[in-house]
Amino acid sequence: MPPVPPQKELPNYVDSIWCAYSVSVLAAWNSEFVTYPLDLVKTRLQIQGEIANKKDAKLVKAPHRGMFRTTLGIIREEGVPKLWQGVSAALFRHMIYSGTRIVSYITFKERVFKKSKKDVFPIWQSAICGVSAGAFAQFIASPTDLLKVQLQMEGKRRLMGLPPRVTGLYDAFNKIVKTSGYRGLWKGSIPNVQRAALVNLGDLTTYDTAKRFILRNTSLEDNHFCHLLASACAGLVAATLGTPADVVKTRVMNQPLDENGR
């Protein structure tokens, strides 16, 4: 029987911070582009029923729709490409948020806390790391969320006969800064940070816990299917925890800004 060749060691850069940052951003870009139509529909659903300006009676008369009717309405009334309206702001957001979130989480786990003697990371420490990493990353990336929400609502405003507020990412940035200064870019940042903290509490913490539970209590090995199951559990918990704050964040960010950035 021929001898088994020795396995090659992975290069040092695989475990580096910049590699983790880059891979996180690329993975987030891929998932964001695929799921962005759902994000757009979610934003439209969250705005339904809100009276952003009491003088605009058309906003009050806007029909309420569910998820599927909203999706079909966007396709029929605005066109299929409009399902990706504002995706540039979403991709720009992940350049800041996703990389910072993962790198911060790894840094907190490795430098702030230490594993127990059983080589297990306690759930309460994982929760603290997840909340801290998510809140920190989201505060930095909050302006990109504001730009994204503003762009996502433009198609609906035009169908209602309202004048467009912005024409693109750069135009939205300039108008916000011109109206309320750079402070206005962080409008809605408080519920946004709260949402991110809750999402990461459910996401990062649940993923580690679910993966460990699956490996201990089933015959599955540490493979892609195991990661898929753990990710599904993490996504469900994260969405459940973060949705209330997400609705508040979206409604605040969709409101007009004043000269004080409010």
UniProtKB/TrEMBL annotation:
Main localization (coarse)? mitochondrion
Q: Where are the Solcar repeats?
A: 15-111, 121-213, 222-262
Membrane topology designation: Multi-pass membrane protein
InterPro entries linked:
MCP_dom_sf (IPR023395), MCP_transmembrane (IPR018108), Mito_Metabolite_Transporter (IPR050391)
- Known Gene3D superfamilies for this protein? Mitochondrial carrier domain
What subcellular compartments does it reside in? Mitochondrion inner membrane
Gene Ontology cellular component list: mitochondrial inner membrane
Q: Which UniProt keywords apply?
A: Membrane, Mitochondrion, Mitochondrion inner membrane, Repeat, Transmembrane, Transmembrane helix, Transport
Spell out the family assignment given in the record's similarity comment: Belongs to the mitochondrial carrier (TC 2.A.29) family.
Q: What is this protein called?
A: Mitochondrial uncoupling protein 4
Native organism: Cryptolaemus montrouzieri
